[in-house]
Design a protein that fits this description.
mainly alpha; rod-shaped
Length: 229
């Protein structure tokens, strides 16, 4: 028995990929439309008749790309929100190991050497403080590593989703043009069989969404940044 999640996924695949991998029923429909249009247009070809099927294909592509755009903006937005939250949590942990080393070097006059101890800072007290700080930072750095791993995973998931959507949009566009070419090829062949005038092909090229060529727009207008480890 098909699960609810699987059903939703299948429904989404039909919505997204119907033009990418056209079913045979769709190809038969295009061929039948071309055949009928050729017969109707033998004596009195009418532009609105010749291009009705092509316009339908273009409208189908437009609606598919619109649905794809809405979905990928929502998906990218969810990943971006999680990433922003992770960056805030990482920043709240304070400086990372490399930053602390740099700060220690500046505090020691840029040499990285320890400050000279005074009578108020005996050796034992200094060692205890250093052990306490080291233990505290070890816990903090362990938490930081976990959050950085989650951030990297979210970045990877978002990038993969965007690339998949971009490829889907490109294939949808190519499939739409292929169906239009199929229509005109059948239409021309049947027109000649009926001794009619060869029709003048008219294609509709639907523009791809801007994010297909410029995926950075799905990052909220900024490039992804990864906090230092």
């Amino acid at each position: 028995m098909q699960t609810e999640d699987a059903r939703v996924t299948d429904d989404g695949r039909v919505l997204w990929l119907d033009l990418i991998r056209p079913r045979r029923s769709l190809e038969r429909r295009v061929r039948r439309s071309a055949h009928l249009d050729a017969m109707r247009g033998v004596r009195t070809p009418a532009p609105e008749v010749r291009t009705a099927a092509v316009g339908e294909i273009a409208a189908w592509e437009t609606s598919t790309l619109r649905a794809l755009s809405g979905r990928i903006h929502a998906v990218a937005g969810r990943h971006t929100a999680r990433m922003d939250d992770l960056r805030v949590r990482i920043a709240a942990l304070g400086p990372g190991p490399e930053q602390r080393l740099a700060m220690a070097g500046l505090g020691a006059g840029g040499t990285g050497a320890s400050l000279p101890r005074t009578a108020s800072q005996p050796e034992a007290q200094s060692r205890r403080r250093m052990r306490l700080e080291a233990g505290t930072w070890a816990v903090v750095d362990a938490d930081r590593a976990v959050l950085l791993a989650k951030l990297a995973r979210e970045e990877g998931l978002r990038a993969a989703a965007i690339e998949e959507a971009r490829e889907t949009a490109r294939q949808c566009h190519e499939s739409s043009l292929a169906l239009q070419h199929l229509y005109w090829a059948v239409r021309t062949r049947w027109s000649r069989k009926r001794h009619g005038a060869a029709p003048v092909p008219a294609f509709v090229e639907v523009p791809l969404p801007g994010w297909v060529a410029a995926p950075d727009t799905l990052y909220g207008g900024r490039r992804p940044e990864t906090p230092s480890t």
